[in-house]
Design a protein that fits this description.
Shape: globular
Largest sheet: 4 strands, antiparallel
Oligomer: single chain
Radius of gyration: 19 Å
Length: 156
């Protein structure tokens, strides 16, 4: 009973934010609302096959809807303005993701705080809004860091 109540409240909150956003169609609005709650309810690895297994769309529908643009910064900004107090600060946290292979876009050497050295992988920078009165941080935006191109010195 409590879990269903939380999902109903979450769905109402998501729908209220999506109604405030411009340029969002009914189909995309339904999909975003569905996918946010579905991802929270799936335990373990999340891919299109898992989404199809637990959700109400086909794998093809998940793939095509994920390929469409969505303004997450606007969505999260509207959420923060609705839920936060007036004492806010912005936080930044770079996060390292270890990754092997050669074909991953953005693969490079980045600093890993856990191992205190540079390692091969990906890095994302997460911006968040920290509410001082509520003692809570809300995710605002994440961007993948660019890899540094190696400079080749040519001796003449």
């Amino acid at each position: 009973m409590i879990i269903q109540h939380a999902f109903i409240k979450g769905n109402c909150l998501i729908d209220a934010i999506l109604l405030k956003m411009s340029g969002i169609g009914v189909i995309q609005s339904r999909f975003i609302s569905h996918i946010l709650l579905l991802i929270l309810s799936i335990k373990g690895k999340i891919n299109f096959l898992q989404l199809e297994r637990h959700g109400s769309y086909s794998e093809r529908s998940y793939r095509s809807n994920f390929s469409k643009e969505f303004d997450w910064l606007d969505f999260n900004s509207k959420f923060v303005s609705d839920q936060c107090s007036d004492e806010l600060i912005i936080g930044f946290d770079p996060s390292f993701i270890s990754k092997s292979g050669k074909c991953t876009p953005g693969l490079g050497y980045f600093y890993s705080g856990c191992s205190s050295r540079y390692e091969k992988g990906l890095e994302i920078g997460c911006y968040s809004v920290i509410d001082v009165k509520q003692n809570t941080a809300y995710h605002l935006y994440a961007a993948q860091s660019k890899t540094q191109q190696k400079r080749i010195m040519i001796k003449r």
